[in-house]
């Protein structure tokens, strides 16, 4: 998918930073459909602007980026959310992911890292600043092991062997390109398998998919 198919809303309360991010994305061919300096404006303009991706700062003057993320993913046409924050604290990362963010970068990331994250998060990949992915996966495992065993709700949906193989690698934290290389299939084929699996399991994004895979012990 070309960068011109990505519609981005940039939300940051620092005008210079907000404008710089919007400029970098625009120069890369991304369609920047709106900018906002606070959460209220972002939620107000998002339904009309219809972004497919929101780049969100965690610290806003009227609400937290976590609350904004939850509000954005609750919209009728929810964008994916990439948090771009000065904070690399574990609690901030986990709160953002639990609210529905698909990716998390610290602001020290290079321009090319940001552009790569925008592409990948738009495609549904979970993208984190190096070092944070292990934190998120560790938290998923902790939550999965702490849960009380649930009563079975009937047979689990049947996945094909290839879908199960892809799901196992997703649970291990591999990016789609890494999975494609390991299985000798195309990046697009990996995306198709993930989308088919999401549909079968009635899940909405890769974050929920990782949780499911860990619950099933597929990350072992």
Description:
The chain has 220 residues and is an alpha/beta fold. The chain contains ten helices and six strands; from the N terminus they run βαβαβαβαβαβααααα. A six-stranded parallel sheet has the order 2-1-3-4-5-6, sandwiched between helices. The two termini are 32 Å apart.
Shape: globular
Q: Sketch the topology as an H/E string, one letter per element.
A: EHEHEHEHEHEHHHHH
Rg is 17 Å
Helical segment count: 10
Largest sheet: 6 strands, parallel
Q: Hey, roughly how much beta strand do the residues contain? A: 5-15%
What is the gist of this entry?
With 220 residues, this protein is of the alpha/beta class. The protein has helices at residues 15-27, 39-49, 65-73, 90-99, 111-122, 132-146, 161-171, 176-183, 187-201, 206-215; strands at 7-11, 31-36, 53-56, 80-85, 103-106, 127-128. Strand 1 (7-11), helix 1 and strand 2 (31-36) form a beta-alpha-beta unit.
Features:
single chain, 220 residues, alpha/beta, six-stranded parallel beta sheet, 10 helices, 6 strands, 12% strand, globular
